[in-house]
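FAQ: What does the model actually see?

It sees only this:
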Amino acid sequence: REHYSFVWRTLRHLGVDPARVDDALQDTFLVVHRRLDAFAGRAALRTWLFEIARRVASRYRRTAARDAPRHCLLAEVEDT
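And it is asked to produce this:
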């Protein structure tokens, strides 16, 4: 609860589609839950959260780009 807003804003700032931010947020905290034992405290908790959110956002952007329709108008193709 304490870091929800920070992670949500981070995901939005990193380009996650607004319709998918809640899913990315849940995925981020699932990774945190799985890896909490590995957190050694060498960095601030927010730094660690940011890095996890950055990787999750990258995965969401990559998926969105792959799933985006790849078409253009025929006139654009004829001009080139």
